[in-house]
Amino acid sequence: MASRLQISQCPSPNFGPRREEARPELIVIHYTAMASTQAAIDWLCNPEAEVSAHYVISPQGDVTQLVAEEMRAWHAGAGQWRGQGDVNSRSIGIELSNRGDHPFAAPQMAALEALLGGIMQRWDIGPAGVIGHSDLAPGRKIDPGPRFDWRRLARQGLAVWPDDAPATQGWAEGAACFGYDVDNAASFAAFRDRFRPWASGPCDAEDGRIAARLASAELS
Question: Are residue 127 and residue 186 in the same domain, yes or no?
Fold first, then answer.
């Protein structure tokens, strides 16, 4: 599937070398929150913006590469995952053209799946390494948001979903093992948006079971 993916090139000047000889171990999924794909590409290629991503995917499934995978794009900003900062040096960023208030188009999701498969193979990144911007920067970022279909990716081995792993720990311990910064009070909301967007109210037993299963899947 990945070999049939057509990728256009639009080089952005907004990149640099990965620091301390880091290599990609994460893939971070974003949405652009802009009116059009071209507006997003223009912004990510504007030197004054000081932001970029490795790839942008349109609702029609068109993929544009802005930064080479071996280079450090400026997409993650402040935040951490698995207790480490400078996520830009350890990740590849994918922007989905979406305002954040509507579902992600089927052609866009299909292109994302093809792109993810190739990146994960090239850099030996497992499903647990595919995360959202909100996962690493809870409270500051909310993308890709509760409309993003993580379970669809998980069915193809392109992300994780907690259904099949045994429960052994509570929410905070399990969420921390998976990667969340549980000292950040906004992490619970980010967790809920990804794994239980329909739920409301305080942390409950099901949140604990989900987090524990995620930790078991990550540590196995």
Answer: no
